[in-house]
Design goal:
There is one protein chain. By secondary structure, the chain is mainly α. It contains 9 helices and no strands. The protein has helices spanning 3-23, 30-37, 41-47, 51-74, 81-97, 106-114, 119-145, 155-176, 180-192. α1 crosses α4 and α5 runs antiparallel to α9 (180-192). The termini are far apart.
Length: 197
């Protein structure tokens, strides 16, 4: 793809994301997305075969950016695994402390809605989650190897458990309109890993 094509495609994704984060995938109209992107419908179909294809690309783009930030944090050599994980979770809480939805978790927003709606979007969510879990698993293993963290389960199982805890807590935030579930998830995560609070 040429740079111009990539830029226009990325622009559409950037405009679609806040709309879908606010309204959900089904309720977000294609015309609203195109109006926000100032892109004619004919041009949209040059970059995406369908709204579903846009959804897949949006999920892939979200996880690509998410994993890059996570990887940068987890590969930092001047921080301990404890510091890396606590910063990760504190950042998660911070994202939901802000009133704007732009930084919130697209995976949480879409998982329940599109997993039964589109196999392609479900597979994109599955792959993105797999990539995220790999990074968390590696960071946990680093902590176990250095004795910085307490090993309570097999590393992949623990990574899955912690990630599921945070996804569930994020759903509760939406239900309760309170950050308490995330603060509880934070305390529980520290306890599981033997990190002093």
């Amino acid at each position: 793809m040429t740079k111009e094509i990539i830029d226009v495609r990325q622009h559409i994704l950037n405009c679609a994301r806040p709309i879908i984060l606010q309204k959900g995938f089904t309720a977000a109209g294609l015309s609203e997305i195109l109006k926000s992107a100032k892109t004619p419908k004919g041009s949209f179909y040059y970059y995406f075969q369908s709204k579903e294809a846009l959804g897949v690309a949006l999920i892939e783009d979200y996880f690509k950016q998410y994993c890059l930030v996570l990887e940068e944090n987890f590969q930092c050599t001047t921080k301990t695994p404890t510091e890396k994980l606590t910063e990760y979770w504190q950042g998660w809480i911070q994202n939901y402390s802000e009133t704007k939805t732009d930084n919130q978790c697209l995976s949480v927003k879409l998982s329940g809605e599109v997993s039964d709606l589109s196999d392609d979007m479900r597979h994109a969510l599955q792959q993105g989650t797999h990539d995220t879990l790999k990074l968390i698993t590696d960071c946990l293993q680093e902590g176990f190897d250095s004795k910085d963290l307490r090993n309570v389960l097999s590393t992949p199982e623990l990574a899955q458990t912690l990630y599921s805890l945070w996804l569930g807590a994020t759903l509760q935030v939406k239900i309760e309109h309170s950050l308490t579930p995330l603060h509880n998830a934070y305390r529980m995560s520290l306890t599981m890993l033997g990190i002093s609070q």
